[in-house]
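Before a colleague's protein record goes any further, I have to sign it off. Would you go through it and say whether the fold makes sense for this chain? Take the sequence as given and treat only the tokens as open to question. The record follows directly below this note.
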Amino acid sequence: QVQLVESGGGLVQPGGSVRLSCAASGFSFSSYAMSWYRQAPGNERELVARISSARGSTNYADSVRGRFTISRDNNQNTVYLEMNNLKPEDTAMYYCYAAARNLWGQGTQLTVSS
């Protein structure tokens, strides 16, 4: 079955850290660039970070650069998003996305609040 399954969200205090995971199945994961998007209530879905398939080059939204790190393990068919120094404005549903397949995960909710 071709799918992406995110995990790792939850409630985190401001300044805290969390790592999101996205497990891929049913396609040749290592051949695809992968991205993380997020969507807060009332807002459009926005790109957070992207990692290429081959060299693992990365790109980040200005709002998260220096705080978030995207990485991938092609042996585990998994892409990660390490998030540090979290802020309340990072609260959103986070989605994993394989653009070349137009494939979205179901999302995982992150809430940053004291």
